[in-house]
Each structure stands twice: as structure tokens, then as C-alpha cells.
């Protein structure tokens, strides 16, 4: 397994195809439940380090990672940002008795997984609140911006990565 680096000899990512079968399995769990990503071919440094900790039996404070990630996303204050951990957020809101806009939402069933079919279903109340889309061309850029933000975070974390020779 080799790191793909930058021109400045900084580690950038691992290729997913280079992972062992065990690591691929843990990576799927990691990317679907803890540190979400849509990039299936590359494992960035943050995810690679967590993957290493999981495989080696190290401590991974998932609750802190998720809480910090939710906080980071919330502070972005972007209407076009991705909503990470929607089920976790909904359960926390329900536990805190946060009032819902819809009295008895038909789209909300605790414990039921979020699927593409359920996400595409739009109620009348949601339709009336739905903002009009301005530009369709901006949509692909969202993933690019997300990738750039991840790279910036990785550069900040570079000084905290131990070298394993």
C-alpha cells in the first residue's frame, strides 16, 4: 500500500483498490457511518488514520468525531451544504422534544432507514417551503468544494500524523 503524494512530498491519499479485503470492509463501514464521503477510489489521510486505528485495535472516539463533524457543518451556515448524520440529528431533536414544522410528518418514521425513495418523496408542506433553484450548473461544484475543504483540513492535520516506516 503506497501513499499518493503531492509535488511537495506530502501524503495526500491511499488508493482504495490497494487496501486489503479486511481494510476495504472496515473502510465501507467508516465511510457510510462515521466519516461520510462519496469518493470511492481514494482514502484521504483522516480516514486512513482512523482505518489504521480500527484495524490495529486502537481507540476511536466515534461520538466525538460525529459531534465535531456536525458542529463543523452547522457552522458553515451554507444553504447548499450536505446534511451529514440526518438520522442521528433527527433522533437527538426528537429526544430534546424540538417542535417539528409538520405535526405528524408521514416521511418521518423513527428507526426506518433513509433510502433514496424516501428522500425523493415530497410532502405538500415541504413543497411550499422549497426554494426555487437558481443555477443547475453549480451542483457539481459542491463536491469539488467539499474535496477542497477536505484537502485544506488534511494540510492542517499534516503536522499531527506520525510517520510509520
From TrEMBL:
Write out the biased-composition intervals (Acidic residues). Answer: 140-157
Quick one: where's region Disordered?
124-165
Which Pfam family name is an example for this entry?
Transposase_32
Instruction: Quote the InterPro entries the UniProt record gives.
Output: Transposase_32_dom
**Protein's name in the database:** Putative plant transposon protein domain-containing protein
- Residues forming the Putative plant transposon protein domain are 6-99
Amino acid at each position: 500500500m503506497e501513499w499518493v503524494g503531492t509535488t511537495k512530498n506530502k501524503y495526500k491519499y491511499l488508493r482504495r483498490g490497494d487496501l486489503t479485503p479486511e481494510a476495504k470492509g472496515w473502510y465501507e463501514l467508516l465511510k457510510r457511518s462515521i466519516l461520510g464521503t462519496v469518493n470511492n477510489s481514494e482514502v484521504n489521510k483522516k480516514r486512513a488514520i482512523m482505518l489504521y486505528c480500527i484495524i490495529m485495535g486502537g481507540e476511536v472516539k466515534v461520538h466525538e468525531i460525529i459531534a465535531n463533524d456536525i458542529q463543523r457543518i452547522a457552522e458553515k451556515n451554507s444553504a447548499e451544504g450536505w446534511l451529514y448524520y440526518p438520522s442521528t440529528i433527527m433522533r437527538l431533536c426528537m429526544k430534546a422534544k424540538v417542535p417539528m414544522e409538520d405535526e405528524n410528518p408521514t416521511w418521518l418514521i423513527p428507526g426506518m432507514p433513509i433510502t433514496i425513495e424516501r428522500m425523493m418523496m415530497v410532502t405538500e408542506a415541504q413543497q411550499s417551503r422549497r426554494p426555487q433553484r437558481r443555477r443547475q450548473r453549480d451542483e457539481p461544484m459542491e463536491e469539488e468544494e467539499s474535496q477542497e475543504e477536505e484537502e485544506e483540513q488534511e494540510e492542517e492535520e499534516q503536522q499531527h500524523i506520525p510517520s510509520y516506516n
